[in-house]
Design brief:
Elements lengths: L37 H9 L5 H16 L7 H35 L10 H5 L3 E2 L2 E2 L15 E7 L2 E7 L5 E5 L7 E2 L10 E11 L6 E11 L6 E3 L2 E2 L5 E3 L5 E4 L4 E7 H4 L4
Parallel strand pairs: 5-6
Antiparallel strand pairs: 1-2, 3-4, 3-13, 5-7, 7-8, 8-11, 9-10, 9-12, 12-13
Length: 270
């Protein structure tokens, strides 16, 4: 049995360190070298809203492999998780490099030790839109749907709107109209409440061994205050939840129901 796959042992991006000046006296009272921030950054990125579901899938796969009775390698799960962490981590690593460069300039001038903590604004600007920091970015398997999906919006028994959601791979629901693809104005809803994400899922046919791919709709709750509901059941936050045709979605305490339908269902196909 191979060693259990450990996410924390996976090194995703190498970190570079500034070289010490030649002939520097050992007893020189100088500023302390900035600490290696990579392990902390890597851990924080793995717990972000976007990466946490992928981390969960990887851990579940690792447990299945350890239990035996499967030929899974977890390679696909690891690749997706690494891609997500890499996207998050790269901006923060660049920020730490800048801190090391400033450290050298300050050290040469022999002035009081500066604060090299990462700037929240610097990190935030790498994942923002219309001046709003985004809580979510799409995974590698994001795809535009091949079926013409729609959301029928009901308030009580009355249909009040039809939303066509086949033109892009993801739709953000929330009260923040600067970034929301589908605004939801009820005060119980969060500014960035949830995302409906279309993902290309690959499975293996048990009989033929053929690889089969299908683009399916999922919803992920972005740690909202008052939850997201599918068929009146709350879904767990920060995890992709697969949706089926005719599912009903609700956000917070809003009285609006969003019923998921596609054209093939209208024709009698599942």
């Amino acid at each position: 049995m191979s060693k259990k796959l450990s996410i924390t042992e996976t090194s995703i991006i190498p970190i570079a360190h500034a070289e010490a000046p030649a002939n520097e006296p050992e007893n020189e009272e100088a500023l302390a070298e900035p600490e290696d921030l990579k392990p902390q950054i890597e851990e924080e990125c793995g717990e972000t809203t976007a990466c946490k579901p992928l981390k969960h899938h990887l851990e579940e796969c690792a447990r299945r492999v350890e239990a035996g009775g499967t030929d899974e390698t977890c390679a696909e799960e690891l690749l997706h998780f690494m891609h997500c962490v890499d996207h998050c981590e790269s901006a923060r690593i660049i920020a730490s490099f800048r801190g090391i460069f400033v450290w050298r300039q300050v050290k040469d001038k022999d002035v009081p030790k500066p604060n090299f903590a990462l700037s929240g604004k610097l990190v935030a600007e790498t994942n923002s839109y219309n001046g709003v920091v985004l809580k979510y970015f799409e995974p590698p398997e994001a795809r535009k749907p091949t079926k013409r999906w729609r959301l029928y919006v009901f308030k009580g028994d009355k249909e009040i709107d039809i939303l066509h959601i086949h033109r892009q791979s993801a739709y953000l629901f929330g009260r923040e109209r600067k970034v929301a693809d589908i605004p939801i104005d009820h005060p119980s809803c969060s500014s960035q409440h949830a995302v409906l994400q279309f993902r290309q899922i690959t499975t293996t046919d048990d009989e033929s061994g053929e690889k089969l791919s299908e683009i399916k709709p999922y919803i992920i709750d972005l740690d909202s205050t008052n939850k997201t509901f599918v068929n009146n059941n709350p879904i767990p936050p920060s995890r992709y939840y697969e949706l089926k045709a005719s599912d009903t979605i609700k956000f917070g305490f809003s009285s609006r129901d969003y019923v998921l339908i596609h054209d093939e269902l209208d024709d009698g196909n599942p």
